[in-house]
Amino acid sequence: MRIAGRGGALALAGLFAVFAAGCGETPPPAVTAAPSVAPDMLVGKWGLASYHKDADRDRTVKEARAQCNKPYVITKGTNGGVMMNLADQATPSELVLKAGKDGQTFLGPPGDAGTADDRIVMNADGNSFTTVWVDPDNAGRYGTMVYERCGKRAA
Amino acid sequence: MSVRVGLLARSAIAAVIVAAAAVLPGAFATAAPQEEMNVQDQPGYQPTPEEEQLTGAFEKQEVFFRTPEKPGTIIIDTKSRFLYLVQPDNRALRYGIGVGRDGFQWSGLERIARKQEWPDWRPPPEMIERQPYLPRFMAGGPGNPLGARAMYLGATVYRIHGTNQPQTIGHAVSSGCFRLVNDDVIDLYDRVPVGTKVIIKQAVAL
What we know:
The complex is a heterodimer of chains A (155) and B (206).
Chain A: H1 2-24, E1 44-51, H2 57-65, E2 72-76, E3 82-84, E4 93-99, E5 105-108, E6 119-122, E7 128-133, H3 136-142, E8 144-149
Antiparallel strand pairs in A: 1-2, 1-8, 2-3, 3-4, 4-5, 5-6, 6-7, 7-8
Chain B: H1 2-23, H2 49-52, E1 61-64, E2 74-77, E3 82-87, E4 91-96, E5 99-100, E6 108-117, H3 125-130, E7 137-138, E8 149-153, E9 159-161, E10 172-174, E11 178-179, H4 182-191, E12 197-201
Parallel strand pairs in B: 2-12, 5-10, 9-11
Antiparallel strand pairs in B: 1-4, 2-3, 3-4, 6-8, 6-12, 8-9
């Protein structure tokens, strides 16, 4: 009984030590999945069009494919991102793909995902993708933007 | 005696003119031509109802308007920034408009070739050059720079259309098109059929 009592106390003390150590530590950061869209999927020349009402999407996609005589060009950045324009910015800057907590993919300046300068990237398959601005003012002005690849489309 | 009659006649004429001016508000008013306005298109901008409400001479109004043209004809006065829709009995509906900026003004005779509600917008190449982030096509709707309606002038590239920038009414801003605030362009659109004669003049003598 004495031995069991002492062993039990030791075990309890050990357990307490473990808990005490755990309580005082910063919990490990949540693991966020890598964005599901790779930068190479965005690089290239694109027909660019936009719409506000869902009913206009199909014809806007068609129109985007017809805009390759004035393509929007996305090039690789030097830090793993892509060179694109932020809203209302005539000079492109390097934007990176960022995974959001709920599985969304954001594209914007390096930093947290889902900031006002970001856009949400959707339906990216190498031949087309769609973006919606996070900032409601930008979204209201530019609508949903559709990018359709110009030239040879990926298989 | 004849001198007194002459004086009385001149006074009477003056009185008539003053009375007419009082009875026909805005008929003799002319809008001072505004400076050219340097403003870029704002795709997606949606003005507030307050911003869309024009006041003074540029507010839509019925005016005295003598012309040999038939009722239903549109006459555009680019210098004064007015569009007149001729009505019977020496009247016209007068709308305030924005016109082409320097180098983009024109005159001529056209007919409305087609009409479109909430027209799509395709920015011109020089605009895309300046603003490369613009979509090359924007489906029609609120915030579209062409506004609620478009009436296409013959085989030209020019239109009478709405605008999402009501502050440009009365100014020379465009690349040659004539713009009205959306309420006015909807009103005009509903009044004029395809085929309507449109006369564009630098100045219109009443």
